[in-house]
Amino acid sequence: MTMNAKLTLTKTPTKFAPKLLATTVAATLFAFSGSAIAETTPKAKPVDSLQKLINDTESENKRAALAKAKQADESAELASDDADDVAIQAQVNSEIAEQSEEDAESGQAVAIATPTLDDDSIKSIENKDGKIYKTTNLSNYARAVNSAVWTPNMRRNTAMTVKMQALLDWNHASPGPIDGGWGMNSTKAVANFQTMKGLPSTGKMNAATWNALTKNIDPNQPVLVEYTLTKDDVNTNFVQTPSGSAAKSKMKGLYYQNIKEMLGERFHMDVRYLEKLNKGKSFTEGETITVINVGTPLKAKINRVVADKASKTLYAYNGDKLVATYPTTVGSTATPSPTGTFKIVNKVKMPWYKSTVKSGDKKEVFMLPPGPNNPVGVVWMGLSKPSYGIHGSPVPEGISRQASAGCVRLTNWDVLEVYANIENGASVELK
Residue 229: CB partners within 8 Å, gap ≥ 6? Predict the structure, then answer.
């Protein structure tokens, strides 16, 4: 390496350094001119120290080039790719269509509580105790995310995008599932955060917005961290969710289907981004994976929320102070949400769901068990308007995209945050 060559040269006492340099240069010149003077003149022997310097420099350059290429490959692998984005959106659309069909056949949502099913799914999202995060062996890409700093006129890149999405999440302006892509939920989150801070609500990043986002955040707080999977993580009860209310009603619970789905909700991540970050990982006990470092949950009394159909946003207030915002789906053309002001009349974790299936003139009623893949997710908060409420979703990627059966739909982690802070009797305005 170049550094090693410098160390070798400095072993010679300082007063001899000029002499050594002159000797080296003279020998080198002689080596290049000897053959031109006479064929019988012996060729000068290569100078070992000089050759070593050349060799080491070349080796270091090769290593630097390889490292740079590797870093570029990592960044390219995780960057937003047009073809990949199209494939992802097609999958999301399929999931949304399936869920919307389920909603359509189910009629109006009615949730009831049960004491019989464990709430491990909720604990997976809420409980951080015992979970140890490290940053010692992060990839170059992850380190780039953690060190990213916004500057004016900077080019769009996935590292900066993930950093901004995490900062918005930490500041309780939820961007929905963090995915490294700047879509409508991220743009809304910026605009909502700007409103919270009394800034012009443009939806575009600027110096004032960046300063506000980072003002109360430890500059050393990492966005991406390493998490080692535990025995409890891998031994969670994972079950494939069947299609149709009749099949769902026969299940003990509508659990997470796999560990990636569970981890996505725990760490507020799009599952596809989780997979990209951990390409080649088996997600087995003892394996270390890279995840989002989720922020501190909101701790602020919520006594009023406004669900805006136009902006597809739920605004949460403590009095007149806007304390949090969440992307949401509010009704559809076929099943529009009511307009007016109502109240929270009940709050239920792990609700059941009463599904009414119409077949011609006949109706069948099925009770769907609790779980994160229940049509209303892990929380139901009923309104004074019967059959309407605020609830979770089994398809977090569909928030702001999918239709609902007239209710206010949030991601499971966002609805749990609202549940933890909102009081019974709180005002709910649907507009």
Answer: 259, 283, 284, 285, 286, 287, 288, 289
What digits encode the pLDDT tens for the residues 288-331?
Answer: 999 999 999 999 999 999 999 889 999 999 999 999 999 998 86
Name the residue among 320, 324, 271 with its Cα closest to residue 296: 324
What letter does residue 80 receive in the DSSP assignment? -
Output the average pLDDT for the chain: 79
Question: Which one of 248, 265, 292 terminates a domain?
Answer: 292
What range does the domain containing 10 cover? Answer: 2-76
Residue 364 CA to residue 344 CA, distance in Å, equals: 29
User: Does the pLDDT of residue 351 top 70, yes or no?
Assistant: yes
39 vs 330, which has greater pLDDT?
Answer: 330
Burial of residue 13, with CB atoms counted within 10 A of its CB: 0-12 exposed, 13-18 middle, 19 or more buried: exposed
Residue 94 lies in a domain: no
Residue-wise pLDDT tens digits, 353-398? 998 888 878 889 999 999 999 999 999 999 999 888 999 999 999 8
The string of pLDDT tens digits covering residues 276-285 is 999 999 999 9
184: alpha, beta or left? (left if phi > 0; alpha if psi -120 to 50): alpha
**By the 8 A CB rule, do 253 and 371 touch?**
yes
- My answer on whether 238 and 329 are in the same domain is no
- What dihedral angle (degrees, nearest 10) is formed by the CA atoms of 197, 409, 381, 173? -20
Tokens representing 393?
């979703």
In terms of Cβ atoms closer than 10 Å to its own Cβ (0-12, 13-18, 19+), residue 133 is middle
Domain identity same for 253 and 318: no
